[in-house]
Amino acid sequence: MSNSAVTPKIGLALGSGASRGWSHIGIIKAMLREGMEPDIVCGTSVGAMIGACYLAGNLEKLEKWVLDSSRTDVLKFFNVRPTQSGFVDSDRLRRFLHEYVATEDLCIENLPKRFAAISTDLQNGREIWFQEGGVAHAVRASMALPGLFPAVRHEHRWLVDGGLVNPVPVNVCRALGADVVIAVNLNSDVIGRRAQKKAEPGSGEKKGVLQKVKQTTIEYSSSFFSENKKQEEAPGLFVAITNSINIVQDRITRSRLAGDPAEVVIAPRLAHIGMLEFHRAGEAIEEGENCIRNAIEELRKVTGKT
Q1: pLDDT band with cut points at 50, 70 and 90 for residue 111
Q2: Among 109, 135, 22, which Cα is nearest to 69's?
Q3: Distance between CA 70 and CA 93 in Å, rounded?
Q4: How confident is the model at residue 14 (pLDDT cuts 50, 70, 90)?
Q5: Which candidate in 16, 161, 188, 221 is catalytic?
Q6: Which single residue of 119, 233, 286, 301 could bond 159 by disulfide (Cβ 3.0 to 4.6 Å)?
Q7: 222: Cβ–Cβ under 8 A, 6 or more apart, which residues?
Q8: How many helices (H) and strands (E) are present in the chain, helices listed first?
Q9: CA-to-CA distance for 231 and 276, rounded, in angstroms?
Q10: Element holding 80 (H helix, E strand)
Q11: What CA–CA distances, in Å, run from 152 to 47, 138, 148, 294?
Q12: pLDDT of residue 196
């Protein structure tokens, strides 16, 4: 019997985790170098974005952008005056997705491999699996984090971030035909850990008239209390929101992985990177590559790739 006849279909479940999601780039690159090309890719939130980008052939282009971007570049995505639906500039985000992730006319059914993006129905909390239609539209719906990104209208429903119901979509990979699922959990170490803040490039940028707004956004970008924050002081609004999201996603992920475990779980150690510190992509990508190197023997065993 030939080896190809018994080679299992590999599903890659890319989890939610905002800026920590850049580690998905390193994970995919390292897997491809090892000859472990996934047959099925499913993603939630930032996982949907990176998964779609990979299948659309834009991973290298996106990686270059994120590695070259600064905190200022990231802050350009935020409105000076937040609307009632979110802080992110929707038009700028849409243009970014079309340029670096998937063109406006690219549909999921035309991707080279099976793909699904997971979102949440805001009215009833049901999972919505995008398996057809516009790729960029599906990605926007999957990563519509309430309060930050506006909800996305789809077939008479308002959709928000899929991480609220299915942060690591192992079950979706299996439903699409995967025999072996490699899951990437970006939130395994963020609860109960305090960030070890590192000196960041550009921290001495000249202050401008929007500095107050930028500082608010920077606060939102950290998922933990700063080291000099007194314990008796109440956390800031955005810190409380991001920590709450982390707690919810961690609990849901633990429960769902217990009920439907993946053959391999990759868990990058990224607690030091705040939820919206997208400019720290280099650290996240490197950690993703390291995770695959450390798990290579286990991955070869379950996938049959030698």
Answers
A1: very high
A2: 22
A3: 16
A4: very high
A5: 161
A6: 119
A7: 195, 239, 242, 274, 275, 276, 277
A8: 12, 8
A9: 23
A10: none
A11: 17, 9, 12, 38
A12: 45
* Residue 45 known to be catalytic: yes
Task: Give the H or E element holding residue 119.
Answer: strand 114-121
- 255 catalytic? Reply is no
The number of residues making up the chain comes to 306
Q: How far apart are CA 148 and CA 93, in angstroms?
A: 12
Return the SS3 of 224: coil
* Burial category of 273 from C-beta neighbours within 10 Å (exposed 0-12, middle 13-18, buried 19 and up): buried
Q: Residue 8 burial by CB count (10 A; 0-12/13-18/19+): exposed, middle or buried?
A: middle
Query: CB pairs under 8 A, 24+ apart, for 191-197?
Result: 191/246, 191/247, 191/250, 193/224, 193/271, 194/224, 194/225, 194/227, 195/222, 195/223, 195/224, 195/226, 195/271, 195/272, 195/273, 195/274, 196/272, 197/226, 197/227, 197/272
Among 16, 19, 23, 45, the active-site one is: 45
